[in-house]
Amino acid sequence: MQLFGSFAILLALVLAGYGVLAGIFGLARRDTRLIASAQRAAMAVFPVVTVAVVCLVGLILRNDFTVAYVAEHSNRALPFYYKIAVLWSGQEGSLLFWTWLLSGYAFIALLGARRKARGIAPATAPGNLAAATAGAGAAALPVPATRAATDEEEALSPRLAHRNLMPLAAVILGAIECFFLLLNNFAASPFVTLPVATPPDGNGLNPLLQYAQMVIHPPMLYLGYVGFSVPFAFCLAALIKRYPGDRWIHVTRRWTMVAWLFLTIGIVLGGNWAYRVLGWGGYWAWDPVENAAFLPWLTATAFLHSVMMQEKRGMLKVWNVWLVFATFLLAVFGDFITRTGLVASVHAFAQSNIGPWFVVFFIVALLVCGWAYFRNRDFLKSENALESTVSRESGFLFNNFILLVITFAVLWGTVFPVVSEWVEGQKIDVGRVFFDRINVPLFLFLLFLTGVGPLLAWRRTSLNSLKRNFTAPAVVGVLVAVASLLGGVRDPYPIVCFGLAGFVLTTIAMEFTRGASVIRRRGGGGVLGGWPAALTQLTLRNTRRYGGYIVHVGIILIAIGIAGSGLNQQAQGAMPYHAQMRIGPYTLVSENYTQNDNANYASNSLEVAVERGGQYVTTMYPARRFYKASNQDQSMVAIRSTPLADLYLVYAGNDPNSGDPILHAYWNPLMVWIWIGAIVTALGTLLAMLPNRRPSGGAPGGIAAKAAAAPVEEVHA
Amino acid sequence: MGTGLVAAFACVFLTAMVAYFLLTGGEAQLEDSPREAELRALRERKRTIYDNLRDLHFEFLAGKLGEEDYRRGRGALEQEAAQVTRKMEGRA
Questions:
Q1: Inter-chain touch B66–A465, beta carbons under 8 Å
Q2: Does residue A268 sit within a domain?
Q3: Which chain B residues contact residue A124 at CB under 8 A?
Q4: CA distance A255 to A161
Q5: At a CB cut-off of 8 Å and minimum separation 6, what does A525 contact?
Q6: A141 C-beta neighbours (distance < 10 Å), count
Q7: What percent of chain A has pLDDT over 90?
Q8: Is ipTM beyond 0.85?
Q9: Beta bridge partners of residue A611, listed in sequence order
Q10: Is A653 helix (H, G, I), strand (E, B) or coil?
């Protein structure tokens, strides 16, 4: 199995290399057979890498400790589901997993292009036409004056751009696959056997990784990171080919949304894991590896907003292209700092020798981006100019500017220890104060723009429209801020955040109710004619816009949860039998102390009764485990979540003198809204990716279509 | 020896499968000629302008835009659509 796995990754490298070379030659010579062969090779990489992955998982499940990776990261007593997680828990396995996901993305993109190709006849297929004319007089052939496809919708959809760009995009994806397959084969193979005698058992999985979230978190994060390769490939292909029209940007945007969704879920799961596992009461510490995931998320978020400027008004083309490039490069950079030990992090893999590989790849990718841009920059000329500072366009510009400033601040804070070591000879960590001080006000301004942007008109907004749209949200925002001040909140940032949350949620509610009221006025609310039906119709007819608003609701909920951390409380103390501790509105009473033992770990657990106002609420069991295979101990946090606050208990060890268990308690207001907000964000993104449902009868689209028909006829006249 | 033989057979089988996949199948389709691509791009642009007109009208009906903003926006989009239509006619 180990030999077969090694062979599979070697074969995958050969296939990817062939796909790149055949694709380049095929495109240069316009050889349709060679291009098709290159695309089939690119597709074949996925099943072949799958074989390698199956081999590695098989070795892990069989406890084959002759293989170094299995001996290093697994052990016999490890439960089945954690053995699957061993695949991505170490350097070599996770790189193979990365390659597998990348080849999977390429496979899906290629499969989509093949399916779409069947549905759209080519305008002119020189190969086919030449073959047809070979056997008959050219004059006898009806040469199509226009597109053969009769379906105008299909011809103008982004699917055609997907199909047309796929050959070159496949070459670019293949080149990225080649890099990772080179690592898999020659720098970090997971199939290397141990040079010494086979150990009876493995070292085991890192205890920090033995949590449900950690089984899902890395795959989600990787799907996000890796996923940005696809929009990068399409964007670069469009630039190199100077692909006419704007449909290529739709393809790029849709793939970016997929990757953005996965990265968002991955980041939030990582925060949830940190909160539930690391036992410090928080979820985000501006750790370099956290930042590494956050950086491409920021630029991708900026792109998902600024792309609307290009789609609607043909503006910001250069900016958008560089945002896609930057997102991909930052994903590579994130992978680089996670894997090379460049910066110290609780999440990072051990130091390794693959750093130079990543540096070379990063430089090559940057050079290719630069070359493609400078060669084709005239292709990216803007079609329109900004007409007013009070317009939807300027809202997007501000949004992008703020996101970019945050990106630079986070990047600078992340690499500062490395830069300071180069300059001064010692690593200086900027700490979370730096990140908080810079980013909190910027994020608050971003929240403000989240509410303002959708209410501004494209091109220019009059004072009357501003008054009409902003009065109610501004009043609600001020009322919420005053209410939170009266409610006892004293920190200015949470007050501003709650006020902005009220402002933005009101603007979103107005957007939904105004749209739905149009549907209801025209009798488009369905049989029941009610608000729920009208809201559903409204949302399904413009999924991107209203899905986007739901994403904004999710972001606001997350912001509310984060603002709650400004009100946190904590207490620590020894808790002998019947000792008490006060935290927030609760009284904690130590009830019992138990010990447990199984094949994987031994644990000590504290039984804590929670009371509020003298009434029993619940019993919680913070614990501490000692994992036998890895000789490491780990605290098991006990959390009680309510919509208002979390009670968070950590068994922090035993008092060295008395031996009494030490309890560290946190009271974290509004924490649960971070996780709820993340779910809402994910659902909104999924909704935004759905195709619009076509309106019928008196539906809003129908009304709008009728209304739009008037000017269109005038135009034709 | 037995395991090695099985692994060798598996490798040969995998290679044969991949080779079969690579060597069978049709041809790829190439994209439109530059002239047709340019016409398609203009049709796409026209479609986008119509979509923008629909959005603008819907926002007006929803009471989000005042009369002044609506008229200005509509006029600009109509002008843009006329330009694109002229370009299309010139290239047809």
A1: yes
A2: no
A3: 30, 32-33, 36
A4: 13
A5: A516, A519, A531, A533, A534, A537
A6: 11
A7: 50
A8: no
A9: A587, A616
A10: strand
B32, B76, B78 ranked by CB distance to A124: nearest: B32
Q: In chain B, which residues have their Cβ closer than 8 Å to the Cβ of A167?
A: 28
Mean pLDDT of chain A: 85
Q: Which domain holds residue A603?
A: 567-672
Residue with tokens 């089939």: A40
Residue range A42-76, pLDDT digits in tens = 999 999 999 999 999 999 999 888 899 999 888 88
A2 falls in which pLDDT band (50, 70, 90)?
Answer: confident
Residue A382: what pLDDT? Answer: 83
* Residue-range domain boundaries for chain B: 34-92
Give contacts of A 197-236 with B, CB under 8 A.
none
* A325 or B62, greater pLDDT: A325
pLDDT of residue A699: 42
Give residue A695's pLDDT.
62
Least confident range from A28-37, A285-294, A436-445, A455-464: namely: A455-464
**DSSP secondary structure letter of residue A123:** S
**CA distance linking residue A71 with residue A190, whole number of Å:** 11
Average pLDDT score over residue span A339-356: 69
First-residue to last-residue Cα distance in chain B: 71
pLDDT by residue (tens digit) across A113-165? 776 555 544 443 333 333 333 333 333 333 333 444 445 666 667 778 888 88
From chain A residues 145-164, the ones with a CB under 8 A of any chain B CB are 147, 152, 155-156, 160, 163-164
Assess A431–B contact: CB distance below 8 Å, yes or no: no
Strand ranges of the sheet holding A638-641, from the earlier edge strand across to the other edge: A569-574, A661-669, A645-654, A638-641
- Between CA A239 and CA B79 the distance in angstroms is 29
Evaluated on CA atoms A274, A276, A277, A278, the torsion sign reads: positive
Task: With beta carbons less than 8 A apart as the criterion, state whether A582 and A480 touch.
Answer: no
- Residue A667: pLDDT above 50? yes
Q: How many CB pairs under 8 A join A and B?
A: 182
Q: Do B7 and A312 touch (CB under 8 A)?
A: no
CA angle centred on A170, ends A304 and A299, rounded to 5°: 20
Take residue A595 and report the two structure tokens written for it.
């010990």
Is A224 a member of any domain?
A: no
Q: How far is B88 from chain A (nearest CA, A)?
A: 12
Distance CA B14, CA A558 (A): 48
Using the Cβ of A459 and the Cβ atoms of chain B, whether some distance falls under 8 Å is answered with yes
Q: Which of A11, A156, A705 has the CB atom closest to B44's CB atom?
A: A156
Chain-centre distance for alpha carbon A303:
13
Domain count across chain A: 2
pLDDT at A697: 46
| A105-119, A157-171, A518-532, range with greatest mean pLDDT | A157-171
Under DSSP, is residue A154 helix (H, G, I), strand (E, B) or coil?
helix
| Position A439, amino acid | N
The rounded distance, in Å, linking the Cα atoms of A100 and A57 is 13
Pull the structure tokens for residue B5: 């033989």
Q: What is the pLDDT of residues A271-294, one digit of tens each?
A: 998 898 888 888 998 988 889 999
- Report the residue of A317, A463, A465, A518 to disrupt the B interface, i.e. the one with the largest count of B CBs within 10 Å: A465
Cβ-nearest to B66 among A7, A35, A464: A464
Residue A635 domain-assigned (yes or no): yes
